[in-house]
Every structure is written in C-alpha cells, then in structure tokens.
Amino acid sequence: MEPDELATRMRQGEAFHGLRLLPGAWTVLRVDGRGFSRFTEERYQKPFDPAFHQVMVRTASALLEDLQGVYAYTQSDEISVLFRPDWSLFDRSVEKLVSVSAGLASATFTHAAGVPAVFDGRAWLGVDERAVLDYFQWRQSDGSRCALHGWCYWTLRKEGRTASQATRELDGRNVGYKNELLFQRGVNFNEVPLWQRRGSAIFWERYQKEGVDPRTGQRTQASRRRLKVDSELPMKEAYETYLRGVLSASEPAPA
Ligand SMILES: Nc1nc2c(ncn2[C@@H]2O[C@H](COP(=O)(O)OP(=O)(O)O)[C@@H](O)[C@H]2O)c(=O)[nH]1
Ligand SMILES: [Mg+2]
C-alpha cells in the first residue's frame, strides 16, 4: 500500500476534525473541573474558599487572554469565555477549540494550585446578543442556587450530619426553607461575600498609558487595554445592563 493512500484512509477516521462553529454565531467555551467535589473537599475550605476562587479567576484570565475572548465569567468550578461572532481562532475548529481550552484551563490551574487538576470543555452557540445575555443569566442563577445549597449542606455537615443525612434533609427544599435554615444558625445568606453568590467576571478595560517620546522628550499618551476582574457583580436586569456595556465596548472599531 502506498503511504499516501494509507494516510488518506486513516484521515477518514478523524471524523470530527472538519466540524466548525457556526459562522456568525456568538460562542461560549465553558470548562468545568472534573470531579471537583472530591478534589476541593480534600484541599479547600467548605463551602467556599477565596484561595480556590482566586485560582479560578487566574485560570479564567489566562483563557480570556490566550484565546482572544471578550468576557469571562467564573462561579464554582466552571468558567465561561465569550467570543464575538467574527472570532476566527483555529478556523473555528470545534475539536481544536474545545480541547485547547480544556487543556489550557487544566495546565493553568495545575500550575497555580500546585496539584494536578483536570477540566472538561464544551462549546455553546448563540444566535444573537439576547441569547448571550440569557446564557450568562443562566450561569449566574445556577451559581447562586448552588451556593445556597452548598452553604446549607456544609452547615449541616459541620453540625455532624453524614453526607446522606444532609442531602436528604435538603432534598426538594425551596429557597425560603434554605435561607431560613441558615438564618436559624446565624448566617444571613444575603450577607455572604458577593463572589460566592454571583461569581466573578473578567474583561478588557481601556486605560491611558503615559510615556515619553525618546526623540523629542515630549510626554505621550497611548490607549492600552488590560484585564479587569470584578468580584462584585450585579444580578438580574442590572447584570444584563452591565453585560450590554461589556459587549458594546468589545465591538470592533469601525473601518
Ligand atoms: N471547597 C470548595 N469547594 C468548591 C468551591 N467552589 C466550588 N466548589 C465545589 O466544586 C464542586 C463543583 O460541582 P460539580 O462540577 O457539579 O461537581 P464535580 O462533578 O464533582 O466537579 C461542588 O462540589 C462545589 O462544592 C470552593 O470555593 N471551595
Ligand atoms: Mg465540576
């Protein structure tokens, strides 16, 4: 058999390699820590640990910067990174983008935390800005629901309940019940740090950099961009307004 013929036949086995993100769609790459319930239980404070969140924010920043995204959002052990419709990294190859984002997240987290950690990855597509706003509302409300549950679960565990007792006690309980459970024990859920309830965002901000022109000695001003981390996010409609602001600031300059 000719080597070329073998290669052609074998390439046919790379069945997913031609798959591309839909042209013109907004994209979110989301990575999620694999088996982080156990991983965090062995290494971090429960239910929340600022040191863990810091590493997640560092990982999200690395993804945003490396993959040329416009906005990153992290809550719990997940990170969503948003890309504009005209983004064309890796020719929008799904395999490449999903694997590289999970790889980058795993490497960055591992390096920062000093222990091996693995992330999975997936791609989400949105047809318009409305869908993007809904996506981030969805992730934020999921985070907030899980934060309340996590606080209740670990409060019960610390009182001596076993894992299954705590799970059973919270099964099917609504938000009011869970808030009350905490309140009875001196915890006002509305007062726990915002990053635990709403997550953190990372995006680009413009700033003016002062310099001196070495030829003329004159002071100069240049517009630069840098990453900004926000751990005091608004929610609901206010979060939507906030996101609209980030999206419009990320628009490509008119030609
Ligand atoms: N100790 C600790 N655990 C956290 C923190 N943030 C998220 N987690 C845990 O990470 C897990 C994430 O959930 P999920 O992805 O569904 O679980 P997985 O499938 O085990 O990774 C939950 O068990 C959270 O309690 C944190 O700040 N500290
Ligand atoms: Mg996970």
Verbal overview:
With 255 residues, this protein is α+β, with helices and mostly antiparallel strands. The protein has a domain at 19-140 and 193-198: tRNA(His) guanylyltransferase (Thg1) (Alpha-Beta Plaits, 2-Layer Sandwich), CATH 3.30.70.3000. 48% of the residues lie in helices and 20% in strands. It contains 9 helices and 6 strands. It has helices at residues 3-11, 36-43, 50-67, 94-113, 129-158, 163-170, 175-184, 194-198, 236-249, and strands spanning 26-33, 71-75, 78-83, 119-126, 200-212, 219-230. Strands 4-1-3-2-5-6 form a 6-stranded antiparallel beta sheet, sandwiched between helices. A hairpin with a 6-residue loop joins strand 5 and strand 6 (219-230). The longest helix has 30 residues, at 129-158. The protein starts with a helix and ends in a 6-residue tail after the last helix. The relative contact order is 0.14. The model has no long low-confidence stretch (mean pLDDT 96). It binds guanosine-5'-diphosphate and magnesium ion. Guanosine-5'-diphosphate (GDP) is lined by residues 32-33, 35-37, 40, 44-49, 52-53, 76-77, 150.
What is the architecture of the domain at 19-140 and 193-198 at the second tier of CATH? 2-Layer Sandwich
Give the C-level CATH assignment of the domain at 19-140 and 193-198. Answer: Alpha Beta
Instruction: Please give the count of helices.
Output: 9
Query: N- to C-terminal separation?
Result: 53 Å
Query: How large a portion of the residues is in β-strands, by DSSP E?
Result: 15-25%
Ligands present: guanosine-5'-diphosphate, magnesium ion
The side-by-side strand order for the widest beta sheet comes to 4-1-3-2-5-6
Reported by name, the CATH topology of the domain at 19-140 and 193-198 is Alpha-Beta Plaits
Q: Report the structural category.
A: alpha+beta
Query: What can be said about the biggest beta sheet?
Result: 6 strands, antiparallel
The coarse silhouette is globular
- SSE ordering: HEHHEEHEHHHHEEH
GO molecular function: GTP binding; magnesium ion binding; tRNA guanylyltransferase activity
Keywords: GTP-binding, Magnesium, Metal-binding, Nucleotide-binding, Nucleotidyltransferase, Transferase, tRNA processing
Domain Thg1 C-terminal: 131-226
Protein name: tRNA(His) guanylyltransferase
